[in-house]
Amino acid sequence: DYLHDPRTPVRGNQAQSMAADVARGVAYLHSLSPPVMHRDLKSLNILIADASGTLKLCDFGESVNVTSTADRTMTLVGTAMWTAPEVLSGSSYDLSADIYSLGVVLLEIATCEDPFPANMYPAMVIASVVQGKRPFVPSFVDAGVKRLITSCWEQDPGLRPSASAVLDTLSNTGGWDFVECIQSNLPICMD
Questions:
Q1: Which of 10, 88, 116, 139 might form a disulfide with 181, Cβ 3.0–4.6 angstroms?
Q2: Phi/psi of residue 92, each to 5°?
């Protein structure tokens, strides 16, 4: 796991490039006709594709094509730490569920830490997320990056940005210089 490996430090521009690669992958899936919902977006489903460090999405085993006539009440899929509250609660969901997961991945890239404490059981994560709680965003994270991450986590899926809007924001955000992940073992709490 590259982000959590002390032998692979991640810094500023590299972190911003990684974030843009992931957002670009989600934007591509969502731009297809019909759109494709990944449904299991997490750092473990992102590969380093080449020597330049380009990231690519992988593991499409839970992915589905989204059609306008499809029943949006879908089965519980994904991994609790990265899964949107509407999915965890068994409600109807759409492409915005991937955006929630993207926000969690962006936090991981910004901090090089797991989004929730390692001692937090999946059932505790599920209950917390459904109740509106989110991972803690440390104060060293640039305010613009924090706004982007938290906008992806909106409880109301309709308020989350599209993948292309996330990519546009990342392209116009120069605030990733704060990232210097060398296994700092940050304390992680719930917001």
A1: 10
A2: -65, 145
Q: What does the alpha-carbon distance between residue 17 and residue 54 come to, in Å, rounded to a whole number? A: 8
Cα angle for residues 177, 179, 182 (degrees, 5° grid): 140
Q: Give the HSE-up count for residue 12: Cα atoms under 13 Å, Cβ half-sphere.
A: 5
Catalytic one of 1, 21, 40, 71: 40
Report pLDDT digits (tens) over 60-98. Answer: 878 788 875 455 546 667 788 999 999 999 888 999 999
Residues 105 and 42: beta-carbon distance below 8 Å: yes
CA distances from 33 to 36, 59, 66, 138, 140 (A): 8, 20, 9, 38, 39
Nearest Cα neighbor of 106 from 142, 145, 164, 52 is: 145
Whether 35 contacts 97, CB under 8 Å = no
C-alpha dihedral (99, 34, 70, 22), degrees to nearest 10: -20
Which stretch of DSSP H or E encloses residue 36? strand 36-37
Measured CA to CA, the distance from residue 39 to residue 98 in angstroms comes to: 6
pTM over 0.90: no
